[in-house]
Write a structure and sequence with these properties.
This protein is of the alpha+beta class. It has helices at about 5-20, 50, 100-115, 135-150, 165, 250-255, 270-280, 290-305, 315-335, 340-355, 365-395, 400-410, 415-425, 430-450, 460-480, 510-525, 535-540; strands at about 20-25, 60-70, 85-95, 120-125, 155, 160, 170, 185-195, 215-230, 235-250, 485-490, 495-500, 530-535, 555-560, 565-570, 585-590, 595-600. The protein folds into 4 domains: about 5-255, BirA Bifunctional Protein, domain 2, CATH 3.30.930.10; about 270-390; about 395-455, no CATH class; about 460-600, Threonyl-tRNA Synthetase, Chain A, domain 2, CATH 3.30.980. The N and C termini lie far apart (about 55 Å).
């Protein structure tokens, strides 16, 4: 079956709506209320508090389609199935239904709605570990589902068992890695078989769903959160068991279109075609494919990041955007044999906007914002690239460590270094470069692990205080500077809070002093902090402030600080402002046109 992604989205939404699910609006790529992660990396990220027991305003049956970025996957892009930007389709049960509903419903969606050949579907389940039993319930349900379509499935035939490394989920990892009190449970994954791909025996004598040869592709994963780890290391059943399902839209499209190459699907083909036109190279040529895939993926991710307010910089989200744009520029240079013009890159980005017209973009309007940012960054990097090429021309010989120093100190891509020295008749020791790169990567990973965790694991006492303080700051800015004030984002660590906002002019020193005074007054007033679930329309009538980049559901959570502040928010917060202690604005700086950033502690 081949359908465009517009119809596929509607099919997914209609299906779960028919099962009494309500849509959870997707959150931005940069999550407003989660300081522990750079990007939204999964559909369940905003639902962690509710999977842990908090009541969701929309009820116990939910679904959505969430755009995601996984920065740690950037280096993997270039093969036929990795992407840094993707959309995750999800459905959730919060203490409502469980395995006997979820498994048949998802199987029916694949077979009866998407019309996938059930002979090409394979499933996995948890085989058990130590005192945790095998997930025999899922296995028996799967047997019955395959039987309905005339397939006699059993373990080793369409059903496979794996250990906790493959078929267990918790925020902390495997059962042995889970701390006391942590919830988790077995999961059941569904794989699609590309029968046109021959098994490569270098990955093992026999092929199976988790084989790395490329014959199988995971298209969906149902997590059954049913256990809690006890202080004695044993596990007990949770009083309320949850279902957390996620399936990549792009991967499901691969299955529907029966292509094992994500970049040959209708979600990438128009972008690849435009790259072919610009470079006068063919995607059919295997030598060109990795570069074309990187250009298509990285530019798509960049366009979506810019749409969500990210600008190229040397820090956090902006650094990732800069890295994506620079990496795709290098790949374009390789295909073109010269530095790409900013207009060539912009032409490809127009195709991306057109591909998602009406879902995420209004191309005519969005291009006016997105194009200048992309072209400016490409222009600046082209200058650096030219300088780097001139620098290399002065070096007679280089080793892997020297190549890494060029990369680290001047941002000069290794592939370009290799290419230019090959022209001089010298091959660079790639292993030595990788060794140096991995040392640096490990240091970076150790320093920034928390930034990629996701969820709410790092909301300690201090970050909760800062989170509540942002509400007071938002209202105080409104009081001092006027009604045009609009929050643009925030970032909170254990050391400080950062608050971005729109204003017609930069606040004066006197105005900032007044803002800080108001916040401290409200802290000293010992105002109670509470929340209530309300229809969105009612919350708006109350004057509750919201984050304009976020789409809110029909039922929302409103946090009130006494009678002073009301704001759309998911938490967490202190129970009384006296817990905050004190508030000091350290600096206020301009970060864009009518955009300002306050640092406070």
């Amino acid at each position: 079956m081949t359908i465009d992604h517009f119809k596929f989205r509607k099919l997914f939404a209609d299906y779960w709506t028919s099962k009494n699910h309500r849509e959870v609006p997707p959150i931005p790529l940069v999550p407003k209320e989660d300081p522990t992660t750079l990007f939204t990396g999964s559909g369940m990220q905003q639902l962690v508090p509710f999977l842990l027991g908090e009541v969701h305003p929309l009820g116990t049956r939910l679904y959505n389609i969430q755009r995601c970025i996984r920065a740690q996957d950037i280096e993997e892009v270039g093969d036929n199935r990795h992407d840094s930007f993707f959309e995750m389709m999800g459905n959730w049960s919060l203490g409502d239904y469980f395995k006997k509903e979820q498994i048949p419903w998802f199987f029916s969606f694949l077979v009866n709605e998407l019309h996938l050949d059930p002979q090409k579907l394979y499933v996995t389940a948890f085989k058990g570990e130590n005192e945790l039993p095998q997930d025999t319930e899922s296995v028996e349900i799967w047997k019955q589902e395959f039987k309905k379509v005339g397939i006699k499935a059993d373990i080793g035939n369409h059903i496979y068992l794996y250990d906790a490394k493959k078929n267990w989920w918790s925020r902390s990892g495997t059962p042995s890695e889970m701390p006391s009190g942590e919830p988790g449970g077995p999961d059941s994954e569904v794989f699609f078989e590309f029968t046109q791909v021959a098994h490569d025996k270098k990955y093992g004598e026999k092929c199976h769903p988790n084989c790395e040869c490329g014959r199988f592709l995971e298209i969906g994963n149902s997590v059954f959160m049913q256990y809690k780890k006890n202080s004695d290391g044993m596990f007990s059943p949770l009083p309320k068991m949850n279902v957390d399902f996620g399936g990549g839209l792009e991967r499901l499209m691969m299955a529907m279109e029966n292509t094992n190459d994500m970049f040959a699907t209708s979600l990438f083909a128009p972008i690849i075609k435009e790259i072919e036109i610009i470079t006068h190279k063919s995607y059919v040529d295997e030598e060109n494919r990795p570069s074309m895939r990187i250009i298509a993926d990285h530019l798509k991710a960049s366009v979506f990041l810019i749409k969500d307010g990210v600008l190229p910089s040397n820090k956090e989200q902006g650094y990732v955007l800069r890295r994506l744009l620079r990496r795709l520029t290098v790949k374009l240079r390789k295909l073109l044999g010269k530095l790409p013009s900013p207009d060539e890159v912009a032409a490809v980005s127009e195709k991306i906007l057109e591909l998602y017209r009406g879902v995420y973009f209004n191309p005519e309007e969005d291009m006016r914002t997105i194009k200048p940012i992309i072209t400016d960054e490409i222009k600046k990097f082209n200058v650096s690239l030219e300088k780097g090429i001139k620098l290399i021309e002065k070096i007679s010989a280089i080793d892997g460590k020297g190549a890494f120093d060029l990369y680290q100190s001047h941002g000069f891509p290794f592939e370009v270094t290799v290419e230019l020295f090959r022209e001089k008749g010298q091959e660079i020791d790639r292993d030595q470069f990788i060794s140096e790169f991995n040392k640096h990567k490990e240091l970076s990973r150790s320093a920034s692990t928390a930034k990629f965790k996701g969820g709410l694991a790092d909301n300690n006492e201090q970050t909760v205080k800062y989170h509540t303080a942002t509400h007071l700051l938002h209202q105080a800015l409104f009081d001092v500077l006027g009604s045009e004030i609009r929050q643009e984002g925030s970032n909170i660590t254990g050391e400080r809070l950062r608050f971005d906002f729109y204003s017609l002019s930069k606040p004066s020193e006197e105005q900032l002093k007044k803002v800080a005074e108001i916040v401290n007054e409200k802290i000293k007033a010992e105002l109670p902090v509470s929340f209530q679930l309300l229809p969105k329309s009612q919350a708006e009538k109350l004057g509750a402030k919201s984050f304009f980049r976020q789409k809110y559901p029909d039922m929302v959570k409103i946090y009130s600080i006494g009678e002073y502040s009301k704001e759309f928010c998911g938490g967490p917060h202190v129970t009384n402002t006296k817990e905050i202690g004190s508030f000091t604005i350290m600096k206020c700086e301009k970060i864009g046109s009518n955009l300002f950033r306050i640092y406070a502690k």
